[in-house]
Design goal:
Layout (H helix, E strand, L loop, with lengths): L10 H11 L3 E6 L6 E4 L4 H16 L6 E4 L3 H5 L3 E6 L7 H5 L3 H17 L7 E8 L10 E4 L3 E4 L5 E6 L5 E5 L6 E5 L6 E4 L4
Parallel strand pairs: 1-4, 2-3, 5-11
Antiparallel strand pairs: 2-4, 5-8, 6-7, 6-9, 9-10
Helix pairs in contact: 2-5
Amino acid sequence: MTRDAEQAVSELERVQRAEGFRAERYLRIGHANRAPIAGHYFSSGGGKRWGQRVAATLTQLGLPTLTVGESAKYPIAQVSAVALDVSLARTDSSEAALLSPGRLRAEAYVLFVALAAELAADASGWATDSLTVLDAAGGPVAGAPVRLGGALVVQTNAQGVARFVRTEPGTLEVVVEDPRAPQRALLLDSERGRVLHAPQP
């Protein structure tokens, strides 16, 4: 992290902190007034591949994709780590989408999965899955936090759907941490697209 509070950090400071940490990867995340992009240094094959991974993961998890291209931003050019500058949506025309339930957490999850896949020895067996959370009346529960495997938290969208990636075989414990539909379940390896109904009051 180049900062841990709401503070301005110069481009030079970003590079200095990344180099001081001896980072293997440098990811700059933002929302700019430009078309969504995963930008890499022009001669960085690793950055380009990572950007393509981000684009593919966005599609895989049902979010709008972006362009993979070169970035002239100072930190992307100057850090010694494989670097990527990601802007997943425009702030001047996508405000409603960015404010929709679960959107920002879904974006963060995409970046996490893409990075994990880059660093994994083999991600070929990973599989996309989803979970739909409904209240007692059968309506979708939007913005519900869902804990996966006791650690990672995703969030449902406006349709009550949380999309995620199974990175290991076997059962997966899920916990819906929302008072509108609190639930706990074990997803079998053979299950995909499970629907969880909140119990009747």
